[in-house]
Amino acid sequence: MTDYLWKKDATERIDERVMRFLAGDDVVLDRLLLPFDIRASQAHARGLARIGVLSAGQADAMVASMDELQDAFESGDFRLDERFEDGHSAIEHWLTDQLGEIGGRVHAGRSRNDQVAVALRLYMKARLGRLGEICARVAEVCLERARREGDVPLPGHTHLQQAMPSSLGLWWAGHAEAFIDDLELAMRIRDWLDASPLGTASGFGVNFPLDRDGVAEELEFARLLVNPQYAQNARGKTELRALDALAAATGDLRRLSWDLSLFSSQEFGFVRIPARYCTGSSIMPNKLNPDTVELLRSLHASCVGARVELEAVLSLPSGYQRDLQDTKPALLRTFERGLQGLSLVPDLLAGLEWVPQQMRAAIGPALYATDRANELVGEGLSFREAYRQAAAEADQLDRRKPEESLAARVSPGACSRLLLDRIDQRLEQWRERTDNVLA
Fold this sequence. Notes:
By secondary structure, the chain is mainly alpha-helical. 61% of the residues lie in helices and 6% in strands.
């Protein structure tokens, strides 16, 4: 039977069915947060020692005991399970078992609201840093392949209809720039939520002159979340913004995955996806299905669902409400699944095999009509007149070659002027920022 931290006396009756409902999946979810909770609890203990609530020896004993808890958790010797209401109570139970009455002093000057708020912010900082790292790696692979395959013709499409000759360079560079945007967004949101709520307790402050700034600095927060009420009101708001960053990346991944799904089909035949990312059919012996690409495509749906879930929960007045507990599952499951999938993308992209002859064969005469219209404008026709004449000549452009079309596209960023150095320079700027954060 669980020994609840908030029980007033040993005779208090607890309805275990109610408690199972209230706890939900908290203990399971807190396995992701426990290392962050331990780290924050150690900083809190040292902060209490600095203001005389704990002696230096008591704080040192707590910190050492929590180091042992971390080791035991990582090795599997300690398991966060139904014996505990949540990860926060597990830490206090561990300290009490190890240190006796001294262990019960760790909760002075804080609330479980403190613990979950700071653990979640540390978690989001770590996961957003990881998201930025993955986006940078995806962009690197795209740029490397854009340099290597920049001049390879590829039919360009709009409305899922053939439009103009394009190139692998343009295609790769487009996806590279998208993921650099996602990298920047992840790091900017990480900076935005980089504030310590620890020491605000239940939303009203406490009766000790806590060294909140010192604790925030030890936990490597950039600043303090000053107001105790806002520390509670910000719950869910920060999670939504973190999910925005993940959703930006999975949204771009969805489009990339759609391209690969189409291009790898027999109707297109432009690219081969490595077999290790595919599975077979249980009934059709001829099938090799691009399952990884398809499930990467659906990751964004989880982000959309998680955001809707959080928005619905957050219709609340000021201060802590127990509803806020239900913001945690959506955030944690979506980030863990999202990063798991995104981490597969760099190697997947590096292993793609294009079929240039198939792409070239798909570029018919009509795709050169826009080139012809622009040539006529250069000869003095108005664009609208050139447009009509090029449309009439579209079937007569069969002697043209895609390389000529690509070479004529000279506007900045176009096929013959990809400006990969500019894209790469921006990537390096944000990659360096990510490396510094993760160092």
